[in-house]
Write a structure and sequence with these properties.
single chain; 461 residues; mainly beta; Jelly Rolls; 10-stranded antiparallel beta sheet; 5-stranded antiparallel beta sheet
Length: 461
């Protein structure tokens, strides 16, 4: 599956360290060819730099050492230049400058960019910028307004922010954009400084975003990326910080997309069982409908208790998924379960016989929903759609407001995949689509038998 949005958000509800804030070293997005979306930094392994001057102890090589704590400082005043020799021609459309961690003083305020094939002939500036790098510990990207392929790049600095009478920078990069670049990053706490959300997108595993709040299901923490334009995402990865605090990486989270940054659509719900230092885990966008159990959580109908004749499940290709329950109401292949006050057997909802039906004893409500569940024993099942057949002659008891939930831990916890409303004017079968059905993330396999899950906990989003 793929999804196209300009804004992307992770809603995080848990980590391995239940009492600690959440950390992410890198969050990356990928297209259908598994290429990273956004600004891809060029390799600096063959680079060499020439600068107009360097203060003692602050050489130009600090600009390409991958360590934002080390800096280059000029010794010749607030104007100067940096010349990059990439060793061979590289393609780029963006320049990145990173200011020093402690202050923005001495960072470039205005500068121009030139290119050359021989390091001598520069021509006119391809881009100029004013009002730049006005923050400490900030990695800023400057679009050059076109794509260029050259060996040499020169950055001429005309002025700096107030403070020292010299130029100070931590790192310099060039890069090319695939799709669109990330233009802004934010989080649920407005974090700034050394752990700002922008550090989750700087392609540097040594830096990380850190939220100040502890994530919970009731009060999730979130991090958001805004692209310059809408991008189509097929998968994404999360990287843990590379130290002993890697347990603060998200273990339970939701991926959301938005076209305007205000209205959000849930694309998938994910669980990562554990993290090691620096580990990267990749997830497929659209992780709907994959679990070892599914449940209809019904909060309204026309009147009385809920009843339905059949609930059938289908895969992404529209083929019905087998839900055997056996003549005794249970089998080695799976099992059905319903609320404890169920008036009839839950297996009636899966027996392929429209003359039998499942019915609850009580009427559904938001505060006291009725539910019907099916547990697969052999593997996780990918769900693309499902159908409900009403009890003949009792359309008023068919579900009208309900949600589909999944479980990956045999019913201990439930995640709401999608909510539905429906009307029943006559007997029949209604089919409902599971948005994003057909994902390929593998969850652990479990074994289940027929039984009541009246006490199961619920997690809704």
């Amino acid at each position: 599956m793929s999804f196209t949005y300009q804004y992307w958000r992770l809603n995080i509800s848990g980590t391995d360290s239940s009492s600690a804030a959440v950390d992410i070293a890198e969050w990356k997005f990928y297209d259908s060819g598994s290429a990273q979306i956004g600004l891809i930094q060029n390799s600096r392994s063959a680079w060499s730099l020439t600068v107009d001057s360097a203060a003692s102890g602050f050489p130009a090589s600090n600009l390409i050492d991958g360590n934002a704590s080390t800096i280059w400082s000029s010794s010749g005043g607030s104007t100067g230049f940096i010349i990059i020799d990439a060793g061979s021609a590289q393609t780029f459309d963006t320049i990145q400058l990173q200011t020093r961690p402690s202050s923005n003083q001495g960072s470039p305020n205005s500068f121009s960019v030139f290119v050359s094939d021989d390091g001598s002939t520069w021509g006119s500036a391809i881009a100029s910028f004013t009002g730049s790098s006005n923050s400490s510990n900030l990695l800023s990207a400057y679009s050059l307004g076109g794509t260029y392929t050259h060996r040499y790049v020169k950055i001429t600095i005309a002025s700096v922010y107030s403070g020292p009478s010299n130029i100070v920078l931590a790192e310099v990069y060039t890069g090319a954009t695939n799709g669109a670049a990330i233009t802004a990053a934010s989080d649920s706490n407005g974090t700034t400084g050394s752990f700002a959300p922008s550090f989750a997108f700087d392609n540097n595993a040594a830096t990380f975003w850190n939220a100040s709040g502890v994530p919970t299901a009731a009060s999730p923490q979130w991090i958001r990326a805004q692209f310059a334009s809408a991008v189509t995402v097929v998968s994404f990865s999360v990287q843990a910080r590379n130290d002993a605090s890697c347990g603060q990486t998200p273990t339970c989270f939701i991926l959301q997309g938005s076209s305007d940054g205000s209205i959000w659509t849930t694309i998938g719900d994910y669980c990562a069982t554990s993290w090691s230092a620096g580990q990267v885990q990749t997830f497929t966008a659209g992780n709907f409908g994959l679990g070892v159990a599914y449940r209809l959580r019904i909060t309204a109908n026309g009147s009385g208790g809920v009843s339905l004749s059949e609930w059938k499940l289908y895969d992404g290709g529209g083929t019905q998924i087998s839900t055997p329950v056996g003549s005794s109401g249970a089998s080695s292949s799976g099992g059905a379960s319903a609320a404890s006050e169920s008036a009839t057997s839950s297996t009636n909802g899966f027996d392929g016989n429209s003359s039998t039906f499942w019915a609850s004893s009580n009427a559904p409500s938001t505060g006291s929903p009725q539910w019907l569940a099916y547990f697969f024993s052999d593997s996780s099942i990918t769900l693309g759609s499902f159908s409900i057949t009403d009890r003949s002659g009792n359309t008023s008891q068919a579900p009208t407001t309900f949600s589909l939930q999944k479980s990956t831990d045999n019913g201990a916890t439930w995640t709401t995949l999608q909510s539905y409303t429906d009307t029943w004017s006559s007997d029949g079968t209604h089919t409902f689509t599971v948005s994003g059905g057909g994902s390929s993330i593998t969850f652990r396999r479990t074994r289940s038998a027929l039984g009541t899950r009246a006490g199961s906990r619920q997690r809704t989003h």
